[in-house]
Recover the amino acids of this structure.
């Protein structure tokens, strides 16, 4: 019996011990489970890219596998709702009380839901016996982890104890840390990726920058190379330019609109005008006179004003320059394509030789003309020469008044022109112009005339035979006639008078000379070829006495051609023949010598004459009044002055001469039909005795002593 | 048609100026002296430009210009002087009286055309 009780006691102890062991083993198992859970958790979070839902899912499966619980749930706590993360499912609502409970009791257990709060939770979870824990992973919404049994299974399970909650909360905290970690790692990875990307971008930019720098450097090099080439080219061109400047035979220089010279100029410029200072004035450099300087000043001022077109301004700049006894011709070319012009290129040519040659040609031509006239019409030329010498002497005496000077110069010009002595004629024209503009003659002008004239005279005298003045032309016929006279026994008186008359020329001669001159003038005036008719009978005139008349007649002829006879076109339009018509006639009528100069031109406009008369207060009622007006000094109906006429001198000269010779002047004219001047001179009683010779008769007494 | 008045005692000169300007479509009026010029201006009140000779018998071109400006009737009418030679004193005087240009005789048609065209614009 004792043994039985002993055995029974021992058995009880054994059972107790077994139970304790069992409990310890269970506890041990539990701890082991939690430990292994703890060790496995990090694996879940090894893939840092995994989504939260995935992680929670894996977590749930693991917890399910390890903890032998029926249900494991993970929710995201959102305002007013619990969003299941694992397992997936519909949202469950979370009332304010529930939320408050979760806030106040972040972890806990429930074996039998009894408290209202817990009841809510149980309902929301759908569990009866469970543990929960709330974690707040950084950077996200709070999560609710719950694990437990539904109602149906809860009975068969042991109740949860505080340890369980502690372990669970630990695990939950572990998860929270791991989540935070994962988040951190993810963030770090993102940062790292971001940095890597930035780095790549920077490296890319670096490379681009390097390329750009390289290109820039290359461009710079090529630019420098081009600049070096250009400089070489320019230097070459400069040398070529200098070559041109050094070899051109003109003086080239540039000036600005203030008249200042630039330093570049051609060698010829330096040779003619010197080196000068660097930025001197153009006018000073060429040592021009005041007139030249004035014209340069005016021209440049017009250019600076910019009102008139460039070419008009340039016209004002002086074209002739006389310096150091050389003559230069200046041209001005604008620099730059457009207006306003900024400077001028001055081109200066030395024309001394050319001008000298021209003058030489003129003078040689003059000499030739003189000789030609001398041989062709000796008497006439000599008479003219003598008269001209007289006129020049008068000019040089310097005691005449302006009006007389005018007459003399005008007549001298006309005469010398007739005989082709154009150099002298030109000098007379220059003197005439000077007299007209300045109202006096400079001594140099007269001196030039005198020099030329005496030069001419010297040459002629040297070449012509001795006794220029003293020989007389007698035609064979005249000589034969006189011999016949003498043989026929004419009286000595008669023969002497005839011989003396030989000195005189036939009136036809001077008329023919006039006619020749008329043709030349007509051509020069652009009136074309004209018909000149000379009608003269056998009158012989004493040249000494009558020479002035021929000079005066030239004026009438000139007038007829210049103002009377129109240009061929105008004549055709007016229904006249294109060739002008001029008539020079001389005949004796009763006791007078009657000369007529007639043209078929446009006639004298008496209305103009009358108007001018009235303007000057001259009477103009009768014909003779008008003639007197026409021949008064400075009277001209011509609006312009040409080389030949219009100065109001010609007719006045005629008037004077006619008066001096005791004659009368009248004019007959009709507008557009023509004009006829009549000069009538009284003659002494004529009457040479009739001579027997038939020749003589047929010639009808040709001599008049006047 | 724009009107241009040419004042010069020489018919030849007036004709040459007219010849140069007619092809450009200008109506050219003639005056032989200052008085005729004033009469013409009074009669044709729409003259666009005057070409005025300096050397004329009676009132000279410069005096005529000064009178034109003085009497206030034609203060802005463009005037171009015409002369054989431009002298400093005359140029200054004409400029003061408001002359726009100077042309030299003998007149070149090309220069008249370009000057008148530019000043009338």
């Amino acid at each position: 019996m004792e043994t039985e009780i002993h055995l029974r006691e021992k058995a009880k102890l054994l059972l107790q011990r077994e139970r304790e062991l069992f409990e310890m083993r269970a506890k041990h198992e539990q701890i082991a489970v939690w430990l292994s859970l703890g060790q496995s958790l990090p694996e879940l979070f090894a893939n840092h890219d995994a989504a939260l839902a995935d992680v929670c899912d894996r977590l749930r499966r693991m917890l399910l596998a390890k903890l032998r619980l029926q249900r494991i749930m993970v929710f995201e706590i959102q305002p007013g709702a619990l969003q299941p993360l694992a397992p997936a499912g519909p949202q469950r609502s979370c009332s304010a009380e529930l939320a408050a409970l979760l806030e106040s009791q972040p972890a806990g257990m429930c074996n039998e839901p009894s408290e209202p709060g817990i009841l809510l939770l149980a309902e929301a979870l759908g569990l009866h016996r469970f543990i929960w824990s709330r974690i707040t992973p950084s950077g996200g919404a709070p999560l609710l982890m719950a694990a437990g049994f539904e109602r149906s299974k809860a009975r068969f399970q042991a109740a949860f104890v505080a340890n369980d909650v502690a372990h669970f909360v630990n695990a939950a905290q572990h998860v929270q840390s791991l989540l935070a970690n994962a988040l951190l790692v993810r963030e770090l990875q993102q940062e790292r990726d971001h940095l890597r990307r930035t780095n790549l971008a920077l490296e890319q930019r670096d490379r681009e920058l390097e390329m750009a720098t390289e290109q820039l450097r290359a461009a710079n090099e090529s630019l420098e190379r081009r600049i070096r080439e250009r400089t070489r080219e320019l230097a070459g061109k400069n040398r070529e330019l200098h070559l041109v400047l050094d070899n051109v035979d003109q003086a080239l220089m540039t000036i600005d609109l203030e008249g200042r010279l630039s330093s570049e100029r051609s060698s010829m410029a330096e040779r003619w005008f010197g080196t000068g200072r660097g930025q001197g004035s153009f006018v000073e450099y060429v040592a021009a006179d005041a007139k030249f300087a004035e014209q340069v000043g005016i021209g440049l001022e017009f250019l600076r004003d910019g009102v008139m077109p460039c070419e008009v301004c340039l016209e004002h700049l002086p074209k002739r320059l006389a310096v150091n006894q050389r003559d230069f011709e200046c041209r001005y070319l604008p620099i730059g394509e457009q207006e306003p012009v900024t400077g001028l290129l001055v081109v200066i040519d030395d024309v001394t030789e050319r001008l000298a040659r021209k003058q030489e040609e003129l003078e040689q031509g003059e000499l030739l003309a003189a000789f030609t006239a001398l041989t062709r019409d000796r008497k006439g030329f000599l008479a003219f020469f003598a008269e001209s010498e007289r006129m020049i002497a008068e000019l040089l005496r310097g005691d005449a008044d302006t009006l007389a000077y005018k007459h003399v110069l005008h007549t001298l010009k006309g005469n010398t022109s007739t005989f082709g002595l154009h150099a002298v004629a030109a000098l007379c024209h220059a003197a005439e112009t000077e007299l007209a503009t300045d109202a006096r003659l400079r001594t140099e002008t007269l001196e030039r005339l005198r020099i030329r004239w005496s030069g001419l005279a010297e040459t002629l005298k040297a070449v012509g035979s001795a006794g220029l003045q003293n020989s007389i032309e007698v035609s064979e016929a005249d000589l034969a006639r006189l011999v016949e006279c003498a043989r026929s026994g004419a009286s000595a008186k008669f023969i002497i008078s005839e011989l003396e008359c030989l000195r005189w020329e036939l009136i036809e001669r001077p008329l023919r000379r006039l006619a020749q001159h008329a043709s030349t003038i007509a051509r020069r005036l652009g009136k074309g070829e004209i018909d000149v008719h000379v009608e003269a009978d056998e009158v012989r005139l004493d040249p000494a006495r009558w020479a002035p008349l021929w000079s005066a007649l030239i004026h009438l002829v000139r007038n007829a051609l210049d103002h009377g006879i129109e240009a061929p076109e105008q004549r055709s339009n007016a229904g006249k023949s294109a060739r002008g018509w001029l008539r020079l006639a001389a005949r004796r009528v009763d006791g007078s010598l009657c000369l007529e100069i007639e043209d078929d031109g446009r006639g004298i406009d008496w209305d103009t004459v009358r108007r001018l008369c009235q303007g000057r207060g001259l009477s103009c009622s009768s014909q003779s009044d008008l003639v007197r007006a026409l021949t008064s000094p400075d009277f001209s109906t011509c609006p312009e002055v040409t080389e030949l006429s219009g100065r109001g001198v010609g007719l006045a000269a005629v008037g004077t001469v006619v008066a001096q010779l005791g004659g009368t002047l009248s004019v007959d004219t009709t507008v557009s039909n023509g004009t006829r001047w009549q000069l009538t001179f009284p003659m002494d009683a004529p009457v040479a005795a009739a001579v027997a010779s038939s020749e003589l008769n047929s010639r009808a007494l040709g001599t008049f002593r006047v | 048609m724009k009107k241009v008045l040419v004042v010069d005692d020489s018919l030849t000169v007036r004709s040459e100026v007219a010849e140069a300007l007619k092809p450009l479509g200008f109506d050219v009026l003639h005056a032989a002296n200052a008085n005729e010029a004033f009469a013409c201006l009074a009669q044709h009140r729409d003259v666009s430009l005057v070409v005025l000779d300096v050397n004329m018998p009676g009132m000279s071109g410069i005096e005529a210009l000064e009178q034109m400006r003085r009497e206030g009737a034609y203060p802005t009418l463009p005037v171009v002087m015409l002369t054989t030679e431009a002298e400093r004193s005359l140029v200054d005087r004409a400029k003061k009286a408001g002359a726009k240009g100077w042309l030299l005789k003998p007149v070149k048609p090309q220069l008249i055309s370009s000057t008148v065209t530019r000043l009338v614009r």
